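CAZyme family CE10, pasting as requested.
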Amino acid sequence: MSLAKVTLTLWEKLDLLPAVGSIVVAVFFAILTGIRRTERQAASLLLHAGYALFRQATKRLSPRQMQYILPSSDQIYERYKKKTGQKPQTIQVGDGGLGHWHGDPNADNVIVWFHGGGFGLPAHSGYWKFYAQLVRDLEISGKSVAVFGITYTLAPVATYPTQLRQAVNSVRYILSQPNRDPSSVFLGGDSAGGNLVGGVLSHMAHTHPEIKPLPVEGQLGGAVMIAPWTLMDTEFPEMEVYHGGDIITTAVAGPWATAYIGGRKRDYYTDLSTAPKEWFSRFPVKSILITGGSNEIMLPIIKDFTAKLKEGYENAELFIGRRECHVAPFSNLELGDPTKTEQGKRIEAYLAENMV
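Structure tokens follow.
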């Protein structure tokens, strides 16, 4: 099941203490120097310090160490539901993947969401807060909607294509429900989850040789890709990068990509940025919304991917949230800032425009 976790060596355990110490120092320094901030940095001191915490943690700790420290995605879901007085509703979608419901499973529209975290980090509580916010506000606008949040087996416990297979299984499960028209099903994902959105659409259009086909009559209602990680290079492209306004650094590319690929050969399912324009033309979805933050280090990659996507798939939009970091709609909520992000607003409007 998706809650499988790694065990650490003695050295990895001993390394946790100095790593945590470096994180504390980074946050303290950010507070001291963050009273006055530029447009390239977070809008509030709370977020500025929180981003520093995320940067140092993801830079200093390996995916294995972070999995050891953090509760699993499934445990986070259980705790969130208990805290909010709701009954958990979890479905096994196959091959170890789990789907967690937020909202009524019989709603007119379903969003299947794949969380980010470099394929190696669990879905924190910010995800469930965002899902709740999304369902509530869409219902206010007259839309009946539920979110089916997918938790997949993390790398390096499992490697590609396990996560893609679990993602495909989750969509297969939703589409197999009685009276569920594809036009009422939406895909969503952020960072690594955005990669899985692209992977699922790719599989639906071009069957992956190791995954059962997923035919669909008609088109899905839409897809949202927040800061999609569509290039598994272990080093960022040669470009000028400023880390101070984001939650990740270029240091994550190597360990996270290596853990996910696991020695396998990269392809268009893992690296959608490398696919030819013809690859996108058969994507069975009515439209795709891609978002990013103006302060995130992956922005050049996101823009490049969007340009390539539009060469073969015309109904795609790119929206950039001013002064926002990588996956800001979730990161900010996890840090205690309930202010709706510009990306979050656009995503909500996009879904309201396209839902039945």
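Note for the archive: The CA atoms of residues 168 and 190 lie 16 Å apart.
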